[in-house]
Write a structure and sequence with these properties.
Elements (H helix, E strand, L loop, with lengths): L1 H25 L5 E6 H6 L9 H12 E9 L2 H18 L2 E8 L2 E9 L5 E9 L6 E8 L1
Amino acid sequence: MKNFFYTMVLLFSTTIIFSQSFSKFENNKDVSSLVINKDLFSDIEISKKGSNKEEEKIVNFLKKIEFVKIFSTSNESLRSEMKSVARKYKKNKSLEQLMKFSDNGEEASFLMKTNKKEELEELMIFVEGSGENESVLILFSLS
């Protein structure tokens, strides 16, 4: 029972730590941010069902969205902090690299986590800027 308790404390503490790590970007004047929570998607009334299979897939996908967080900054110290938070989050959540590319000094990594049914659970995109280019962190979570 003690082991279970310690495991739960560890899981909740890492979740809280990473939630706080991203939230520090939300209220920073040097970071542009956009945070969309599940409530926005649930408030959108989707009155008609998709008329075809593709539209139904989109509607079902929108219903699963927990949150979308987008952070962008050109501040050099914040860019390195953003990179550090992204690396820790990747390691902690065991995200797998989906794709990576670089162009003109910018490097973009697409990382994902799937559930047991091989459905997307989380997607993190990190674009590392250089020089005066902005770094962008996008975190997308599904239920």
